[in-house]
């Protein structure tokens, strides 16, 4: 039993002892206060344990996965949210170029990043990214809040997830956009439906149908992996679900333009160099997220509560 487990066991025993005092009218008020304080300590320690476990699992994933797929979806905020989603895509593309990774466009707001440690580098980016700024169309100068969700999925080999052909429904259409006579005459675009889950994948970026089929299957494997990760997080519990291995719905970061501030809410850290970060210089943020000591911080900052 390690030190953290010993501490958790000790706190559990102290809570149990104080609960026995609740039957005593004279001691009950003090016992209730003590129980509340001990339970808070226990929760903080459990969260820290979950963070450490998440870091260990990410280290294992680093060895297992290399390339990654980044998918961005605009959230609340209308046209401003769509603009923000595109800015995030540009930010990741520029940072990937700085890291000498190869970037391939799979679909609108979806890219594949190819590099020996690409998944490890971007793995903490999954979640909701919130922007606070005055839109160009805002005449009154009011700050608006918009969001976009990011999913970072490792590129998986076909053997990683079994997909039965009977569970697939394929549709083929003519791809839109530029591409010459081939686009107009041949059904190269692919629409793939995974019948058990209802997941629908579209792929149309390549000139040949077989290439788009392969892309669609690759994206489907990623979606199924994401579903499995969400299921595992739910089984482990809310403490684990909210830390480290973010899913799409967790607010992980705020970009506050008026304050020139970027805040990561998981490690309660802020950087006052927003233009550089959004411009692609993510290295300070990535380094902080990969530092286990940063995850040991307790409580929240004022920026977290905005």
TrEMBL record:
SUPFAM superfamilies: Release factor (SSF75620). Residues 28-62 form a coiled coil. One of its GO terms (molecular function) is translation release factor activity. InterPro entries: PCRF, Pep_chain_release_fac_I, Pep_chain_release_fac_I_sf, Prokaryotic/Mito_RF. Gene3D superfamilies: 3.30.160.20, 3.30.70.1660. Pfam families: PCRF (PF03462), RF-1 (PF00472). GO terms for cellular component: cytoplasm. This is Peptide chain release factor 1.
């Amino acid at each position: 039993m390690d030190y953290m487990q010993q501490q958790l066991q000790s706190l559990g025993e102290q809570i149990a002892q104080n609960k026995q005092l609740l039957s005593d009218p004279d001691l009950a008020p003090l016992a209730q206060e003590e129980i509340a304080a001990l339970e808070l300590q226990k929760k903080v320690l459990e969260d820290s344990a979950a963070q450490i476990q998440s870091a260990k699992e990410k280290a294992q994933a680093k060895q297992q996965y290399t390339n990654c797929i980044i998918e961005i979806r605009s959230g609340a905020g209308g046209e401003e949210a769509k603009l923000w989603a595109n800015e995030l895509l540009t930010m990741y593309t520029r940072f990937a170029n700085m890291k000498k990774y190869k970037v391939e466009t799979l679909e609108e707001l979806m890219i594949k990043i190819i590099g020996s440690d690409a998944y490890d580098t971007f793995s903490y980016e999954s979640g909701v990214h919130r922007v606070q700024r005055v839109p160009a169309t805002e005449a009154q100068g009011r700050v608006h809040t918009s969001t976009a969700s990011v999913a970072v999925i490792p590129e998986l080999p076909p053997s990683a997830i079994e997909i039965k052909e009977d569970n697939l429904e394929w549709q083929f259409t003519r791809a839109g956009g530029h591409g010459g006579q081939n686009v107009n005459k041949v059904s190269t675009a692919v629409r793939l439906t995974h019948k058990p889950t209802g997941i629908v994948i579209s792929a149309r970026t390549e000139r040949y149908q077989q290439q788009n089929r392969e892309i669609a299957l690759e994206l489907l494997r990623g979606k199924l992996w994401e579903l499995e990760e969400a299921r595992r997080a739910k089984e482990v519990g809310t403490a684990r679900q909210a830390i480290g291995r973010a899913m799409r719905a967790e607010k992980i970061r705020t970009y506050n333009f008026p304050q020139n501030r970027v805040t990561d809410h998981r490690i309660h850290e802020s950087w006052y160099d927003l233009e550089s970060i959004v411009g692609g210089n993510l290295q300070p943020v990535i380094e902080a997220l990969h530092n286990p000591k940063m995850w040991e911080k307790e409580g929240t900052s004022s920026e977290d509560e905005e």
